[in-house]
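Thread: quick sanity check before group meeting

JM: Hey all, I'm pulling together slides for Thursday and realized we never actually wrote out the predicted structure for the chain we discussed last week. Dropping the sequence here so it's in one place. If anyone has concerns about the input, flag it before I start.
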Amino acid sequence: MKLSPLFWPIQLKGNTIYILDETQLPQKLAYIKARDYQQACCAIKQMKTRAVGQVLLVMYTFLLSKRQNKDLNKVARTINATRPTLSFKSLTEMVLAWDKSPAPLEKSILGFLEMLKAKRIEQAKDAARLLKDRDVVLTHCNISGLMPLIAQFAEKEGKRISFYVTETRPYLQGSRLTAWEIMRAGFNVTIITDNMVAYLLSKGVVTKIIVGADHLTLNGDIANKIGTYQIAVVARYFKIPFYVICPPASKLKNGKQIKIEIRPDNELKIYRGLALAPKEAKAYYPAFDVTPAKLITKHIYMGV
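JM (edit): ok, ran it. Output follows.
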């Protein structure tokens, strides 16, 4: 299978972490260099990488910091302060525990990453098994390389799959990232604006919906890119299966306990230097919303 660059967008070479700058896609496949944990955390805050890229970056940041003899507790605190909704705490606690064990930290981290890669591929296979020939899949935001992989596994099973992708405002991860990687893999994709979903579903065009999740709670609620909740509500109304590719569950009991990250006003009002609204206008940008488990047809678990 051919993997999208977004499937594994972070690499550690020597004492430098190379971060695929997702904000430059699809115009340019460019990498940012991070040489310490402060630079890596800055890339997370600025959304230069997201989804699985952030998990990889956290792990490689610890690996680099260990090589540089940094205080890993301080590194963990800095990472945990980057983006509240994503909750890196379980990852950082795991790494700090590994650091106290007899096994070398580098071996533990690299072993975890190999397992993560294998589990993500299994998730794509599991999702492909849920699809039928000629299914039309709607997706929202970006699942870090899994959507084209799902399509490839489905194709291997003799299923022809096509896609509708929401723009996913205001960062346009759907049109810039997902549409780009699906087309790159050779599959049909149609871009729609976020506010076209109900109309499209009412026409019976879409047969399945697959989205990712940035946070999974113990009761099955998920937090994902803002707009996911309303898609789930409309999907239930039109009786369209709504599948979620999930990360490992956090320790939170339910979605009400998830802290929603509120991004800066200007991320709604300005895009790549272009003013989209009056300078004095107020803007409100929660980066995520919570979809309750009762609206989810099936969770596709990672099992890490």
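AS: nice. The first helix runs from residue 37 to 45. DSSP finds ten helices and 16 strands in the chain.
JM: adding both to the slides.
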